[in-house]
Amino acid sequence: MEEVWILKEFEKVAQLMPKRAVSLIKQDRELFMEIVISAYIDGLISLGKAAEVLGVTREEVIEEFKRRGIPIRTPDRDDVASEVEAIECL
Hints:
Mean pLDDT: 90
Structural class: mainly alpha
Radius of gyration: 15 Å
Order of helices and strands: HHHHHH
Shape: globular
Helix content: over 70%
């Protein structure tokens, strides 16, 4: 992959300008969705957090994950805490 250097440099710039980098990523809905799904699969975020950052309901995330064949994790303490936090923000 020729453009690996671009990704490495983007990562460095993103550390200096995180808000700008995130803003750019969020502009590409498909790319942002893939990043959120990857973070969920890697156990970095909960289902509730995925829904929150995508701006959709938990049920919509579950349907999308089912459509893609992504297994839904059983919630742990952190997942439940994230869900409670999300509810309290409403």
